[in-house]
Every structure is written in C-alpha cells, then in structure tokens.
Amino acid sequence: MSFLSEAATVAFRETGLQPLGIGMPFISKKWCSHGAADAGRRITFNAESLSLTLSGGETWYCPISARVVKTNLSDRKPTATLIKADGTAVNGDGLLFELFPGALQRLKRLYVRRLEAASPVNYPNKPADRPIRPVPRYFFIASSDVDEAVTGGWLHAGQDTGIAGELFFFDEQGHIIHPLMVASCFTVLGDAYAGLVKESAPNQLAHIVGLSPASFTVRMVKPDGTPYDGAFVNGKTDMIPAIGLFTVSAYTGSDAELKGELTRQPDTGATGAFPLERARHLHLGLDTFGRLGNRCALPALPSGATLTHDFFTVKALDTRTYLTGAPDRSPTGYVGSRLEPAPVVRLHEDLTILADGNALMQRLHSLFNGSSTESLVAAAEINPKFPLPSGTDIYWPSFPPPTGSGTPADDAPFPSDFKRQVLAASRAVVIDGSSPDVCLTLVGLPVDCAVRVYHRVFGSGVVLSRGDGAGGLANSVVVPTAGRTFNGQCVLRLANPLGLEPPFSFPPSPKLIFDMVVVQRSGRMRIFGNLELPVSTTPEAGSAAAADNVVATAAKQGVCRAGVLGLRRTIAPLPVITDLNSLLNAVVQLGGETPPRDAPRLPTMARRDLLAAAKRGPNWTAVLAGGAIGPAMHSAQSTLGAPGSQGGPETQYVGVFTQNAGLAYDVARMAFRRTTSFYDRIQQLNNGLWDEPAPNTPLDRSQSPDGTRGTIAGSVLQTIAPYCETPELALLKSVVEANIASIPRDWNALVDLVVSWIDGLNLAGLPSPLDAAGARLKTELRNRLNSLKDSDPAHESQRERLYTEVVRELSAACFGRRDAQWALEEAIKNARRFIYLETPGLSFTEAGAARPYSRNLKSLLAARISSHPGLKVVICVPKVPDYGKGYEQYRAKEVKDRFDLVLDLPSANVVSFHPVGFPGRPSRLESQVVIVDDEWAMVGSSSFRRRGLTFDGGSDLVWTDLERSDGAAPSIASFRKMLMAARLGITGDGFDSRRLMLEDVADVFHFIRETLRDGGLGRIEPLWNGRTDGVAYSEPTLDSNLVNPDGVEFQTLNALVFAALGSVPL
Fold it and tell me: Which domain of life is it from (predicted)?
C-alpha cells in the first residue's frame, strides 16, 4: 500500500467521512440553539407558507453543510430564483444556503437508496442516481438581522447561523419543499448513516417532524412556479388550495409500486366545464423526472422505509397558453386577436433540431430528393447552385465528398516555401469588363483539400478586415513541375474583391491581397496571410456555376426580393402614401405572382421565413428556419473556414425538422400561404391532398419517440403586418371590424356574408394596380367562393378547412398576425431561471404608450428580473444588423437603440455578445432562437424587435418536451448546450471543464462575462456601441418608427417619414 493510500485509510478510520469535506452532505439533528430535544417548543411550522419560524431569542443552526451568502434588496440579491408557497420569489434580507454540487449529487443518491424503489416500472427510463422525490439544494432564512449573522462563506452542519427568522427549503428547480418532509428524510438518512451526522445531540428532528400530523401531500404548480388550484385533477383532497397544497387520496389501485395517483378528470365532450379541447392540453407530472400526461404516479417507499411526511411537487401545464400565450380576445382587446384563428397546438409529436446550416442542408435534400405528390419551398432568396449532403455524414472531411482526380495528399507535410510555390503558379483575372468580380486560380495545393480565401477589405479609418471571399475544393490536378510539392488546383470567383462602385472601372495595375485557409481531410489546417497577386484586367471567362441541387425541383416556390434584405438594388420611389388605399396600392406594387412568388409586403418590410415541405403518400415532411437558401447555408465548422463551402458571409442557421404528423402539415400549410395566392389556394385546399393527419396518440411510458410520435407539444406561429396577405381583402376592413362579433360558424353562411361584402365594394377611384386587384375580388374570388359551397356531410372536414382559411386570410389581411409576440410575452412571464436569446435583430418592441396590440418586452423582462432576481438573460445578436445595401442609416439606428436597450437592463442579470465565425469575422444569425429554463423553445424567422414581431413576415415553431428530468426537458437542454458550445467555441468531451459549465446557465453567464472582459478571445465580441476607432461618429437621425415600425402604426407615419422611402431600394 502506498503512503497516500495508507494515510487516507487512517484518516477515514479515525474521522469517518470528514476528509471528504464539502463534497459530503453532512447533516445535523440539532436545528436551533436551544439545548432541549423539543427546542423549548420555540420552533413553529407554518402550513400557509411551508416554513419554520423560531422564537424566544434562539438562533438557527445549519441543518446541512452548505455555502452561505447574505442577501438584501439592493446590491446582494439572491442569485437563484426560489419560489415560495404563495408563488413569489425570495427577494429580500436573509441568508441563502446552497449545497456544494458534489454534496447534492451524493444526497440524491442517498435519497434513491433509502427512499425509492431501484427500478420503478412507472418511471422506466429513470437513471439509477436520479430521485423522484424533491431533494433540497437551497435553504433560506429570511431575516432583517443579517448583520448579526455569520459573515458568509461555508457553514458546517450544526454550526450556528447567528440569526432567527423564517426557514424555507427549496429543490434544484427553486420550488419550495415541505420543511417537515425535509426533516423526515434527514431522520431516515441520519438513522441509516451515522457517519453523515455532524451534530446529533440533542436530536430535535423528531420534535420538528411531529409539529404536524403525518401527511402525504403534493404542491401543484404552474410553469411560472405559482400555485395551481387543482382544477380538473382527481386523486387529491383540498388542504390549502391557495398555495397549491393538497392531500393525496388513499391509493385504491392494484399497482403495488404506487402510494398515490393524480389523474386528469374526464372531459365533458365538445362543451361543458371541461371540454375535450381543453382537457387534452392539461398535462400533469413530477418536476423531478417523468413524462407529463393525463396522470401523475406517486411512488411508494421501498419495503421497510417510512416517512412521516411525504411530499412531491407536481407541475400542471396547459400547453395552449404555455406555448402560444394569451392575447386578449375580449371586446376591449386587440380587434385582430378576436377574429384570427388561434395557432393549433399539436401533441405527441417528434421533432429533430437542426443546429447548423449543414444539418439544414441535409434535411432539404431528403425533402426534395425523389418524387412527391406536392413540394413547396419559401425563403428570402432561393439559390440552389450549391451541393447538399445526401447522407448522414454532413461535415468535413466527409462532406463534400472527394470529386476530383489524383491521389489525395493529406499526409504530405507543407513545405517551408508553400506560400511562394502557390503564388508563383496562381493568377487572378477579371471575369467580365462590366463586372467587378475576379477569377482566382490557385495552383500548388494539396489535392482534394478545402480552400477558403478571404480578400482584404480596407474600411473607414484605415481599418483592415477580412472580406467574404470564396471557397472550394482543390479537386483538379495540374501537370507536376519541378520545385512544386503539390499539384492540386482550385478556381474561385471572388465577388468584387477590390470594393469597386459602379460603373466598375478598374484602377491601373490592381492587386488582390488575401488570406488563405487550407484544410486537408486528415484534419490538418494551415492559415496563410497577406498573399498578393496582380489582377489581369483582360477579361477571361470564369469557372462554370455549380449545378442546381434538388431544391430547384420544388413545385411551388416563394421568395422575398426586398431591398431591406439586400435582394433588390434598384430604387423605384412609390407614390405618396396618404391613406389606406394608397398604402394598399404600394403593397400590391411590391408583390409579384410570377413564380417564384414574391408575396406582397409593405415598403421596407421583409419576409424572412424559410419553409420547406414535401408530401409522399399520406405523410408530410417539413423544415422550418429563417433566412435565404444559398451557398452561405454551408456554414458549419466556421473556425476552419467552413471547409468545402463556396464561402460568403459568416452565417449561422438553426432550424427544425418534423415529419408524418400535425406539425409537418402545419409547416406545409404555412409554406402554401407563402408560395400560392389566396385565389388558387382556396381552390386547391378543397382536395384530399390537404386532408389533415389524425392527431397522434401518446406514447406508452416505456416507448421512445419513433420519428412520427414523440413527446413534443408544439405550434407553428406566424408574424405578418396588416394588409400584406391578399392586400385587396383589406378593402373590407371597416365592414369586417363592424361585424367581428357576428361572423357565422357555418361555411356556406360565411361564403354568403363575404360575397355580400365584396358585392358592396365601391372600386371607383382606386389607384392602379389596386383597382385591378379589387376587380379580381369581385369576379374571381367571388365566383370561386360560391363554387365551393357544399352541404354534403361527407365533405365536413374540407369545409372546416376552407372556413378556417377564409377567416384567417380575412383577419391577416385586415389586422395582421403577431403570434410570436404573444408567445414571447408568455415565455418571459414564466421564466424563472434563465432566458437564452439568439436573434438577428434586437431593439424595442413598443414605443410610447401601451396599446392593446403591442407589448413592451424589455419592460416585461426588467420587471421579471426585479421580482425574480435569480433570473439570468444571455443575448447573442450579430454585430451588424441584417439590413441590405442602402440601409446603412437603419443599421446605425438599430445599433444605437439596442445598445441603449441592453444598457437599461440590470447588468447583474443580463449579458450580451456578438457571435464570431472565422477569427476576426463577425457572424450573422439567420434564425431566432429563444430557450427558457430548458423547458420552452422557439425557432424561426421572427426577431426580438418591433419590426420582427409585428411588421416583417416570419414563421416560428414553438415547443416544449413533455419528457422531464431535473425540472428541464432534456432534449431542449441538449439543444441549448449545443448552441452555446458552438457560439462560445467550446469543444471537447463531457470532462472538459468548460463543457461541464454548460449544464448550468448561471455558470455559462459568468463564463461569457469573463471571456468578454478578456476581449472575447476571438470567439465572441462585446456589445458594439456603433463607434469605430479612428472613424468620426455621427448620431443616427432616422425616425425610429420607420426603422423599427409596428405594422398597425405604419399607415400613420407622417409624410416626412414616408419621404425617406424614396432613397432606399424597396
């Protein structure tokens, strides 16, 4: 035996478990300073608050070894969100105790060993070290006498805290635990493991446990931690409903493993107090582990074990409100919310996260490869001239696969004069006399390596940066020559690398200066800087464009050629906008029905959706994300230069894939709206092709997601400004608003009503082309609606589909939709621990006084942080907002507004950063991602600004996973960790300390802050204030209401604001 082993053996023999120190959950049987076992009856149990109080001048002893800090209402607010019995968070003077992570993990294992069955049938996938009963991680002594308390640091079990006050216990998720249950559990553990007990005399636990008769209770909570009143739940009796506390009814079933069972009450049919549609969305489950559903199994103790007080925390989740929010649909609420069909929440779905552009590319290939009965794709831009991965190997070095000739030279070392060899054999040539593009032919590269070139950009203030450049493979072989090690060749087309302005006149003797990245399939990477080649101005044809990928085969396509996205360069001033009709006329002008459809939009508005769907047989498959479809989508492994890609701007994509069920169908319907006009759509919907799939049934408790059924509850959301969905329908706005409370529920009656409204339109004096669009209403739409009237009972589902589509189109045309705004409002209200936000744009969401149709999410966020001081917010936003050429003032204004917004939030709770792709190159974000508490997630094309939630067109998918572990949805937690690792440059396995930090967002929060203090370490950048060293700064003066408009208020902007539209491409 070694000396160290022998010393450890002696130490454990003589001192028990003491050498393990803070890693052991040592407990005390003495909880206060009084010397008697009954504590002089100075301890009182408060059932209404689930707390203990101490009187008579006594002070609390530390019940379990823990770290301790003082808290107050000003500069020392609690660092964790701890929800008391009444639903409010701990937020005041006192002592906050937290178990060391190692001690908490050991305590969990002890709970499992002594208090739970080894392999519970009702929880078949539960890890062996994961308890079902709540385990205390925090406890808090509320007291105004903290000045008299210990100074802070570490307290051992049984050590005097120095104060009295009110004692609360909380689990890992911050939910309160019945204090007598904690005392009961500590009694069991102390009796079983004497070595855990630090202070055993006098044993006050027996007295504390006896402060109330034996109990078996549950506390039911909503997602925000506030009490649930127990409505529509069987298996309990009221105890204190105001705090969600109920006594569990005696179990009468045959399952010997159970001690109790809560079940959702049977529905009352289509109507009644608990209709089916409401009942199917109420889910119950333990917050510690399990799957939320129509029952919650409460496990019995193992044979021989007893707990005087047993207790569970049960979550009650209404997936409709939780996911899509609760817009006010009353007569005093926003009129648009009263008419629009609410987003459909699908249950028991399967979902695949696409965490980068390569994953998105692979799913697009699977969607459109092969024959289908219907295929649709919509994106800001569709450029299919880039390869898509066809298999599961979607990253370098597997993708792109080798395509050239010759033997790959991956194992050959780079010669010391490699740069000289390449420059001696390479050349740069102008492609076309009327184009600023340059063809760069690189020779002398390792065969089949990936090459990325970044041309140098000379910015304002003599600032050098790396341009977008181009990329490719050295997949052709040139004739070997003496003095050259490699013989691979790569031909690249660089877009305007010299930064020329029209009419593109080249300077004499131009030179191309660039950096080059070479990545071999073996993983070897080299970066070569400051390469220089003369540019020949004698035009030569460049390399042939890449072949179209399978996205080009989609039958229905939609784009958005918007200047604000940089996709339209010509400036064509619109007529003066003075009233609704002139605004509608502008909207019609900015659309185009020639395939690919460019859907109508307001001036400066964008449609940022990325939607793709295909149907084979009875099943749909679908993808939802944000941004354009093009070569920049190949963006994974950006620190290597996205090897194998065609290059372009640094871009990050995130999306979702779903198939064979309701969510895929809903994405297809959304793509249908983007790619097909309402006139054609309403006819085509009257077809079995668009029959809605049957709802999924829940998985059995032992089943796992299978690609069709799963544990996801989700909904597809739409954001669109008024007047943009079939703008001529907005001519009916006044009559629709006047009759909004009396819209018939019958399809034929709805057709008759809408046709009568159309017949009553006066089209005289309408400007062109709005007059032609109005005439189309009176002829084409009127006739098509009348032809669809049907009373055949066999066609009921098709009539319902048509009815919903007509009402939805009317509502969207007149009032728009702002589903993402309502969903985010609800998510922020429910946030307890953290919010992670990735967004293409960040700014205010409401200006001026509150309106029924708008929400000030910044103020809501600040209020939530104030009431829940443990809430952490992490914001990832591109350095340069996503505005196209000509919109530089828009960019500058948003940069200023977002800087002011973040600065106005509590810095102790909010950290923000800019993502970086290849070192030195800020990255764009195409998709918005919001994750709350690892339980709620949203991905799509909206953005966290007024423009992105009420003006621009967007589609999002919001979801939760009903599978829970440690208070979180494991699939959402995994998604969040994957994103954070990519943004922060964290690699390595689970034993990497930085990767371990990803488990707790509070740790990541501090890691980001420290990284920013060190300058970002090349992976992230601090929030930009709009100023650049060496460049004179001009305060942006553009009207915020034009830069970041609300769709409802856009019509009311004054003439001077509208005049600014004449200077930008629309």
Answer: Bacteria
- Is 292 found in the same domain as 167? yes
pLDDT digits (tens, 9 = 90+) for 842-869: 999 999 899 999 999 999 999 999 999 9
How far apart are the C-alpha atoms of 943 and 912, rounded to whole Å? 16
Pairing of strands 345-349, 712-720: antiparallel
Contacts of residue 1029, Cβ cutoff 8 Å, sequence gap at least 6 = 461, 463
Are 810 and 821 part of one and the same domain? Answer: no
Task: Give yes or no for a contact between 599 and 560, defined as CB atoms under 8 angstroms apart.
Answer: yes
What average pLDDT does the chain have?
93
The two three-digit tokens of residue 352, written as one number: 């695949």
- Tens of pLDDT, residue by residue over 724-765, are 999 999 999 999 999 999 999 999 999 999 999 999 999 999
Q: Is residue 275 part of a domain?
A: yes
- Same domain assignment for residues 811 and 821: no
Q: What span, in angstroms and rounded, lies between the C-alpha atoms of 593 and 675?
A: 9
What are the pLDDT digits (tens) for 510-532? 999 999 999 999 889 999 999 99
Written as one letter, the residue type at 153 is G
Task: Provide the CA 327 distance to its chain's centre, in angstroms.
Answer: 21
Peptide bond connecting 397 to the previous residue in cis, omega within 30 degrees of 0: yes
- Closest-CA residue to 598 (of 583, 584, 609): 609
User: To 5 degrees, how large is the angle CA 109–CA 27–CA 155?
Assistant: 115
The residue range of the domain holding 24 is 1-322
CATH number of domain containing 984: 3.30.870.10
- How confident is residue 1065, by pLDDT bands cut at 50, 70 and 90? confident
Looking at residue 293, the DSSP 8-state letter turns out to be B
Q: Is the pTM of this model over 0.90?
A: yes
767 prior amide bond cis, ω within 30:
no
Residue 404's nearest CA partner among 295, 487, 289, 498 is 487
In three-state form (DSSP H/G/I as H, E/B as E, the rest C), the secondary structure along 344-396 is CEEEEECCEEECCHHHHHHHHHHHHCCCCCEEEEECCCECCCCCCCCCCCCCC
Query: DSSP of 420-474, one letter per residue?
Result: HHHHHH-EEEES-TT---EEEEEEEEPTT-EEEEEEEEEETTTEEEE---EEEE-
